[in-house]
Every structure is written in C-alpha cells, then in structure tokens.
Amino acid sequence: MSVHSPMPAHTRPLWKTICAGALALAFAGQAQAADGCGYRVDSGTHATWPGGYQAWVEIGNQSGETATSFEVLLDTGGTAITDGSLAKYQPTEGGGYLVNEPNWLQWQQIPPGASYRFHFNGEPDYTGVTPYLISINGKPCDREPPEVSLSASARYFTAAGTLTLTAEAADNTAVRKVVFARDGEVIAEDWEAPYRLELAIDGSGNGRHVYTATAYDPGGNKAVSEQSRLLVAIGDKFFGTAPDGEPDYPRLADYFDQLTPGNAGKWASVEGNRDQMNWQNLDTAYQFARDHGLRFKLHTFIWGQQQPGWIGDLAPEEQLAEIDQWMAAVAERYPDLEMIDVVNEPLHAQPTYKAALGGDGETGWDWLINAFALARAHFPDAELILNDYNILILGQFTNDYLAVIERLQSRGLIDGIGLQAHFLERAELPVVQSNLDALAATGLPIYISELELNFADDARQANAMRDLFSIFWEHPAVVGVTHWGYLEGRMWRENGYLLRADGTERPALQWLTCYLAGGVCDHLVPEYIPAGWSGGEYGLTLEAELYDEGQGLIASGNQVAFTDDGDWIAFRDVEFQQGWDTFQVHYAKGNEAVGSISVHLDDLASDPVLTLPLEPTGGWGSSSTLEVPWAPLAGTHDVYIRFNDTWGVANVDWLRIGKPEPVPDTNLVTDGGFEGDAPSGWQSWAGAALSLSRDRAYAGKQSLLAGERGNSNQFAVYNLTGKVNPGSTYAVSAQVLHTGDTADTVRLAAKVECSVETVPDGHSTFPWLDNNTAVAPGE
C-alpha cells in the first residue's frame, strides 16, 4: 500500500468520522532520539476507539542540517494503517511501514529548530507506535550495528532429533529481525524476540554444518554472530585404521571406512629437513582415502614427541613462522581436510617450542590455545580435535583433560575430543563408561582415535574387544573409532593386530565385522581360559602390569601405578614349587607415607600370607628391590596383591617368588671387571668418551670411565646380540660411581631391537632394569 496526501500543510490533522463507540483523546508518546542526524522523532495519538486509532509522528530538527527528505520506519505494533496524510506510507516485510517525505518538502523543508508532523489512521485496537528515524537527506542517522550471539542446543547428533538455535540480539535503537543461515544459505527469518528456530535433524543432513545468525536494526545495519558448528553422524559412525606404509593398504578397504596416516602426517615426517617437504607418504594415504571413499583425518600438527630436529635451533619468532608455514603448506596441498588432530598428547608430550606459541601464559595453556587458533585460521571448515592417551582409565586423568578442553571450548576453537585407546587392556569398564559420560557432557563429539588390545591370546583379545568396543560404539557421543594399525608385524604394539600375516582373521576381527554389520556375534568370541603362571626351578617372576584382574589402579608401561589403599591385582592359577623360599618386589615410591602390600591366596578376603611395608625409594623414578623370606608351599593358587594403608602405595614393576639362583660361571660381558688394556665391547651411545681408569675401581684395579658427556643421554652401551638364548633368564648387575656435583639419575636399561622383517623400524623397546634418580655425588 502506498498512501499519500496532496495537502501541503504540515500540521493539518486527518480526522476519522466516528459512527459508534467511545472516543478517547491522547497527546504525545515517548520521543526517540536519533544518533547522528541531530533530529528527534516523537509519536502520539489524537484519539483511540474500539477497533481503531488516529496517531501522529513528529520529526524535530534540533541541531541537524535542513531536511528536504526523510525516511522513518514505523512500527505500528501489528496494526495496519488505513489512510494517512502528509507523507508517503509503504508496508514493509515483517510488518510496519516505511514513511517518506511528501514531494513538497524539498521546498518547505525542515530547518534547525523546526519540526514536521504527519498523521495516520490505523486498525484494529491501538497497541503502540514506535518510529525510527532512518535517514535525513539520504544520510543514515544510525550507523551502529546490532550485537548478536548464537547458541545451539547440541554440537552433534548421532540419532535423529531436534536442533534449537537461539539468537540473542540487541541494538542501540531496536532489532528489526534475525536471519538464520546454514552453510551460508538463509534458512529462516524471525521478526520478533525471542529469536529462535527449531530444525528437525535426520540422516539426510549427515556431515559438518555451520550455522550463523544475522541481526538487522531499523536502519539496515547488521551484525553476524560467531559460527555455531554442528556435526551430524546418524547411522554414520566410522571404523578406521592407521596405515604406516605400502603393506597396510591392500586389505584396508575390506574392513575400514576411515583412514588416519600413522606417521606420514607428522611434521617431522614431512619436513625432516627445513624447507624440504616430503609429501610422498602423506599423498599416498590421502589419495587412497579419496579413491576408496574413506573419511580422512590428519595426524598431527603439533606433538612434542615427533617434531623436526631443526626447530629447536631457531629463535621463538622463527619457530612461530615455521609453525604457521607448516599449517599453510598442508592447507594448500589438502584444502578439503575433514578432521585434524591439531595437538597430540598435550598432557604428556608438550613441544619444546611452545614458548613460540605463547608458552603457558595467563591460562596455563596459551600455547595450546594459539595452536588451535592458527589451525582454525588455516582450516575454518575442518573438525579440529585434541588428542591424548590415558584419559579414560582414571577419573582424575579425565578431569585433567576436561580442564584443558574447557579452555579451548570457551573460545570456540575445538570441535571434537580425541581419546587414544592404547593401554586399556586391563581398564575397568565401568570407569571407562563413566569417564566417557563426563567427556560427553561437554557437548562435543568424541573420537576414539588409537585403539588396540595388545594380547597374544586370541580369546583374551576377542573378549576384551567385545566388551570395550561395544562401550565405545554404543555411546551416543562417539562418532568414530580408529584402530591403530591392523596387520600382524605392522603394529606399534606387537600383539594388537587383527589380521594375521597369512591373511586370516583373528577372532576379534571376526567379531568386529559381524557386530558392525548388525549381526548376533557372541558365538565368534572364544571362551578365554587363563593360561596360568609357572616358573622354573629357581622361581617365577610376575610382571605386575600383566595381572589377570585388578581394581582401582592402572597398568602403565612396565608397572602398575596409582595404587591406593584397597586397590588390588590378581594372578590366576599360579603354580608354586616347594623349594621356593624367597619373595621379592621391585617398586618405586616417591611420597613419604609408608604403605604396604599384602599377599593373599585364592581369595582377597583370606588372611594375608605375607605383608610387606614399602618404604620411600627417593622418587617415583628411583626403584628398589625388597626381599623377604617366603614360606614354601606347593600346588596351584590364585595370588592377590592388595595395596594398603595410604594413597600412592607404590609403583610396582614385578614380584618374584623363588630361591636364589647360583652365580653363573660365565659372564656374558667380556672383561666385565675392566682389567684389560681397552674397554672391550663397549661403545658410546651419543658421543661420550670411554676409557679405562685406575682412579676408581669397584673390584680389581680399573673401571670404565664415561667422560665428556654433553647431556644425560650420552652413556656407554654393550651389545649382547647373539649371546643370549630365547627363553632364558639372566641376572644383570652393575656397580656405578657418580662423580658429578649434584644428585643425579643412574639408570640401567636395555634395548630390545626387533628386526625390520618382523616389526617396523622404530618399534624397539627400552625396558628399565634399574632406575635411581637421587644418587648423591660419591655414591
């Protein structure tokens, strides 16, 4: 509708004839001040009656330029103007009217100190009129945009549901409307507060989506909210793996629908030499995923364990530039990455160059926040994920991780939570479930990123896989699981494979294939019968971390840790020999509270057959061996080890029941007493100068001196390859004198190096035989 009057007067009222009903007279409404034009706008009514009203609007020039034109947006409170005078009236989208000057105003004008009034009739009942001065002489009177924020009721969907988007908008004059958009396309407009939109979410929308809200004020100024990111994965969870070379690809697509390159995407793998990029292996992984329709996740931008060696030689500002260049290079080569592990293991392996990213800073995690901010700048559409291990195994680890996640989530920088599933072979399943729930409460999707179950026994692996994997897969927050490798001889952990080298499937893989297809699969899981434990004539060593059952603690590397009062481990079917008369425990303890372990046979509730107080050893990295008499017995028993009296009882490496072994006649170390003319068979590990010295000797006349050591990683090594026999046990002993100025670590360790033919290079193990962290000078 366009309503205008030929009348030239600017104060002549337009009267409506009242035929019936009551008439009420009114005067002026609240004035509206303009921001930038020097004008004031007022409104009021001449009269109201049932079913209608007569109103006016007055524009007053307080200090602005002389007006020959104006534009007013008139909010009539949902009523309609039936006729009007002294202006042109045009209905607008969303209600209200845009009012412009009559033609004669270009001659009559509104100079400073003057005013201009127009009048109109409306129906039905009067609910209020609010005018907004948009412009004078074509110049906007309000240049200040609104403020708007957007919140979503969910961050992900793994089942059909409803997404509610809520926008909060404010303006110095008024909010005219809010426009909702998905992936840049307008999906709805809302003209009235509260600004809310409900959307049905189903599998047709699977994928990552970005929602925004744009608020407009009466002057047409607008503001766009921060993005709200949503992942939809309804019936679309993935089961992936992590190839690490050509042998991993031929069977990969038979079992998996997602791919994470195991090593090819790490910075050190791509840019081992500065500015020399080797993309070959990463290209192979990426292209395989694209060719086979597999989802692809990059692993990883920042990780303290595998970073280019040259980065440590640069100044912080150069390091930051290199980090930015690294991400930019990946973005240029792979612009459509879906998922990225931005930072790997921030709780365990922080990068040496974190100062370049801001260090700990005010938050304690500035470097991490800035790393994610860089990744967001280079990859605005990718799923940005934080990844770490040992999170699900204990509640306190989960809480530590949540504190880090919160710092990223409050800044809108994290899209998903990565949970490595290494070392969960003996995890307590209710604890895993509870910790998953706690992480899911963040509203972020969860990625089980690095799963394997390192059991050589097929039945044990299959049972553990069924019990653990079903918790992961059936949790509504989990959107995918990645098994870290799958092929025998190609695993980071030797017995975690699913497919044998001869191409046959282990029972765990058979169950997984059936389960993921929706079948009934328990018949594919063999019954697990513990093999029991037996030793030799001189005893049996029970590696603590290989317990059959346990509660309240964790198996961490080659020990059990986080042992508190009431925690326990059990070894089933231990075969004793009558001649065993000694019990030993090898442990480390860094706190001062004395705890104990007790040994129970066949039932944890039975009276202990032995109780050993465990004194502090000087540090959690300093080990001691405690030896006590053992009452000999025969037969087969379940052995329970209970931790008592305090928190942090001890980190236990191994327990041994046996009798003293005879001293061997032959030392496998040639000239172990260093009585020859040269240190025969000994080599420097990393540059230490080795020589024989007569100044210090434990027995005899000489000792081996390791001098000119630039750092603690430079020490002496002796190669026993070819001298040891499979299945044999060897006693290792050494006498070391520390001649430094301060207390330091003395460590006796081994390197077990697997052949490249059986296990990929770099998968050697380094067990500590003894580790003492507080050896004083002269000891």
Automatic annotation (TrEMBL):
<dbReference type="InterPro" id="IPR003305">
    <property type="entry name" value="CenC_carb-bd"/>
</dbReference>
<dbReference type="Pfam" id="PF02018">
    <property type="entry name" value="CBM_4_9"/>
</dbReference>
<dbReference type="InterPro" id="IPR013783">
    <property type="entry name" value="Ig-like_fold"/>
</dbReference>
<dbReference type="GO" id="GO:0030247">
    <property type="term" value="F:polysaccharide binding"/>
</dbReference>
<protein>
    <recommendedName>
        <fullName>Beta-xylanase</fullName>
        <ecNumber>3.2.1.8</ecNumber>
    </recommendedName>
</protein>
<feature type="domain" description="CBM6">
    <location>
        <begin position="527"/>
        <end position="658"/>
    </location>
</feature>
<dbReference type="InterPro" id="IPR001000">
    <property type="entry name" value="GH10_dom"/>
</dbReference>
<dbReference type="InterPro" id="IPR012291">
    <property type="entry name" value="CBM2_carb-bd_dom_sf"/>
</dbReference>
<keyword id="KW-0858">Xylan degradation</keyword>
<dbReference type="InterPro" id="IPR005084">
    <property type="entry name" value="CBM6"/>
</dbReference>
<feature type="domain" description="GH10">
    <location>
        <begin position="246"/>
        <end position="515"/>
    </location>
</feature>
<dbReference type="InterPro" id="IPR044846">
    <property type="entry name" value="GH10"/>
</dbReference>
<dbReference type="InterPro" id="IPR017853">
    <property type="entry name" value="GH"/>
</dbReference>
<keyword id="KW-0624">Polysaccharide degradation</keyword>
<keyword id="KW-0326">Glycosidase</keyword>
<feature type="signal peptide">
    <location>
        <begin position="1"/>
        <end position="33"/>
    </location>
</feature>
<dbReference type="InterPro" id="IPR006584">
    <property type="entry name" value="Cellulose-bd_IV"/>
</dbReference>
<keyword id="KW-0677">Repeat</keyword>
<dbReference type="Pfam" id="PF03422">
    <property type="entry name" value="CBM_6"/>
</dbReference>
<dbReference type="GO" id="GO:0045493">
    <property type="term" value="P:xylan catabolic process"/>
</dbReference>
<dbReference type="InterPro" id="IPR008965">
    <property type="entry name" value="CBM2/CBM3_carb-bd_dom_sf"/>
</dbReference>
<dbReference type="Pfam" id="PF17957">
    <property type="entry name" value="Big_7"/>
</dbReference>
<keyword id="KW-0732">Signal</keyword>
<keyword id="KW-0378">Hydrolase</keyword>
<dbReference type="InterPro" id="IPR008979">
    <property type="entry name" value="Galactose-bd-like_sf"/>
</dbReference>
<comment type="similarity">
    <text>Belongs to the glycosyl hydrolase 10 (cellulase F) family.</text>
</comment>
<dbReference type="Pfam" id="PF00331">
    <property type="entry name" value="Glyco_hydro_10"/>
</dbReference>
<keyword id="KW-0119">Carbohydrate metabolism</keyword>
<dbReference type="GO" id="GO:0031176">
    <property type="term" value="F:endo-1,4-beta-xylanase activity"/>
</dbReference>
